[in-house]
Amino acid sequence: MIALPPLPPSQNGHVPAEDLTTGGDPLEYVSVSRLKAFLGCRLRFYFEKVMVVTRPESPNLHYGKAIHAGIQHYNKARWRGGDASETAVIAAYQKAFDNPEKGAKIAWESADEAAAQRAEGEPLLKAFLASQLLAPETKPAGVELKLRAELPSLALPLLGVIDLIKADYVPVDYKTIGKTPNLSLESWLHEIQLTAYTLLVEDATGEKSPANELVFLVKTKTPKVIPHRVPAPSQVQRDRFARLVETYANGVANEDYYPSPGMQCGWCDFRNECSKWKGGPS
Ligand code: SF4
Q1: Contact, 214 vs 228, CB < 8 A?
Q2: Atom of ligand 1 at shortest range from CA of 41
Q3: pLDDT score of 81
Q4: What is the mean pLDDT of the chain?
């Protein structure tokens, strides 16, 4: 097995310390988050990723991040050695839940809502750990790896943070959702992310990545964990991804930020700012 390269802090694939979600020069690199935001609505991308206009975080997003922290603790403990017990995983979740990232405000409607949401994490993580015990894996190749690739096919460097890379170089991403997923729809919805992760892993390892895996943690009354293996992206999907990155690079270079009214406006926090748009980026 070829190990993921040990990377010096300054270069060779590791993302700079900058958080991928907190702005910076949008032409310095493209990430899945930037690309999806841009393709969803360019004006919203401008407010969120360029101007970095902050808003209270949604309870669902905060909950998903805290669950992610519990899973991350578990995977890191398996990768580097550490306490992968149920107690430690749930403690990591609760710590993240009680301490929002960067002091972010969470848009709770009441303290009771926050307490009820917090309590839901424990059974979901227990279901996750039970699924791991049923199908134990070998040691991962990497956990929460921040990778950077400069590929001739892409107009900009590609950056990404991958939840888990299995020993056979399958990138894994965890999704916390409220109902049982339609798996073929989910594969379609996450094509950009899965293609980006494959490109990053293949660039870092020099090996072909055989597949991707989405793992859904479903917050139903009895929590469920549904792993879904997706074939490695085809050449057509890789070419589509490259064209989308090109569209992003050209659109950002031209400050081509305009509204895209549609269903996504229903959960957009920037309707007030958007309503003042009259033909320019600001
Ligand atoms: S309200 Fe709709 S069109 Fe306006 S920025 Fe938000 S998503 Fe885009």
Answers
A1: yes
A2: 8
A3: 87
A4: 88
| Domain coordinates in residue numbering, the chain | 28-49+140-253+264-276, 58-136
Question: What CATH architecture applies to the domain 28-49+140-253+264-276?
Answer: Alpha-Beta Complex (3.90)
Q: Which of 227, 244, 108 is nearest to 173 (CA)?
A: 227
Higher pLDDT, 84 or 134: 84
Which protein residues touch ligand 1 with a CB less than 6 Å away? 41, 43-44, 259-261, 264-265, 268, 270-271, 274
Task: Kindly state the average pLDDT of the residues 261-268.
Answer: 94
Give the pair of three-digit tokens for residue 260: 């895209």
CA 38 to ligand 1 centroid distance, Å: 11
Q: Which atom of ligand 1 is nearest to the CA of 265?
A: 2
Tell me how far apart the alpha carbons of residues 63 and 66 are, in angstroms, rounded to a whole number.
5
Rounded distance from Cα 28 to ligand 1 centre (Å): 25
pLDDT digits (tens, 9 = 90+) for 9-35: 333 333 333 344 556 799 999 999 999
Mean pLDDT of 132-156: 86
Q: How far is the CA of 211 from the centre of ligand 1 (A)?
A: 34
Sign of the torsion angle spanned by Cα atoms 217, 218, 221, 223: negative
